[in-house]
Design brief:
Layout lengths: L9 E2 L10 H28 L6 H30 L3 E2 L1 H34 L4 H4 L2 H18 L1 H4 L20 H4 L8 H34 L4 H34 L5 H26 L1 H11 L7
Helix pairs in contact: 1-2, 1-10, 1-11, 2-3, 2-10, 3-5, 3-8, 3-9, 8-9, 9-10, 10-11
Length: 312
């Protein structure tokens, strides 16, 4: 079986019916991309530099920020090339690699949110053993497991793409490559590629969500047993940021899933907009949520941007 290298490149698609407005659309998108890179980059820098943030909760947050930053850097070049220069061509290898990273990072983000819920569960339900259970070594192992799961599970459906023949239209539906978009153009038996991602994505993401949900039931049950109202409030406040990030991620996942599954009569532009919401909204909101709701991060940001004390 020969590697399919002689086929024409794929063609990316921007906003259908709004091609004349691509330059104008690129302005808010560029602002959002810049905000995502700066917001997540600052979070990673603060967690690395500030010793007050050297705790398991913030290490997991740094992993989340790294994943969001990776997702942005993977999709941003092709999107802006399409909008700025109308450069639509992308080689098969680059397209498959982009699709691999996009889907892997999506599964990884779900896994990191699960790891963060485990962190909150231990911190609230077993606080006396928190530091002994979530040691730096254990955090590294959990992080490596989450990333290996995300990047390992997506490899099987991506590798066959290199050997498929693409004899249909080479036009993709978005300004970035998605596995489900690519296999529609293949002239080959794509049964495995159609079933495997659905089973894996839904089982993993759904399982992650169910475990997170169960962990928070136990967390709330423990919090309700705390006698002091002030201590109950403090315990719940440590979970607010994480709960907001969970809602942002899973609501966008569910929204995109419903649009793709039941929105066959919905205009294609709505599908495109929902895809951008899915790829941009969580990475944009996560740093905002943690900057507003987490006192330690807010203090670190104020210290970072406050002028140095004057010498007298």
């Amino acid at each position: 079986m020969e590697l399919n290298t002689s086929a024409r490149p794929f063609l990316l698609t921007g906003f259908v019916c709004l091609e004349k407005a691509h330059h104008w659309i690129s302005i808010p998108l560029s602002a959002v991309y810049t905000s995502i890179v700066l917001g997540n980059g600052i979070l990673i820098f603060l967690i690395r530099a500030d010793h007050n943030l050297h705790e398991p909760m913030y290490y997991f947050l740094a992993m989340l920020a790294t994943t969001d930053l990776g997702m942005t850097l993977v999709t941003m070049p092709t999107v802006l090339c399409v909008l700025w220069m109308n450069h639509r061509e992308i080689s098969h290898g680059a397209c498959f690699l982009q699709a691999y990273f996009i889907h892997s990072l999506s599964v990884t983000e779900s896994g990191i949110l699960l790891a963060m819920s485990y962190d909150r569960f231990i911190a609230i339900c077993n606080p006396l053993r928190y530091t002994s259970i979530l040691t730096n070594t254990q955090v590294i192992k959990i992080g490596m497991g989450v990333f290996m799961r995300g990047f390992g599970l997506i490899l099987p459906p991506i590798l066959p793409l290199y050997w498929f023949s693409y004899c249909r239209s080479h036009v993709l539906s978005h300004a970035f490559c998605l596995h489900q978009d690519i296999i529609k153009l293949a002239c080959a038996d794509i049964t495995f590629n159609r079933l495997y991602p659905v089973v894996v994505m839904f089982s993993m993401v759904l399982l992650d969500f169910l475990i997170i949900f169960c962990s928070y039931i136990l967390i709330f049950k423990t919090v309700m047993c705390i006698a002091s109202g002030e201590n109950r409030s403090k315990a719940l406040n440590t979970c607010v940021s994480h709960i907001c990030c969970i809602l942002v991620f899973y609501v966008t996942v569910i929204g995109l899933t419903f649009i793709h599954r039941f929105g066959k009569n919905v205009p294609h532009l709505v599908h495109i907009l929902m895809s951008y919401v899915y790829f941009l909204f969580p990475p944009f909101m996560n740093p905002v949520i943690y900057s507003i709701k987490t006192k330690q991060i807010r203090s670190s940001i104020l210290q970072l941007f406050s002028p140095p004390p004057s010498r007298t």
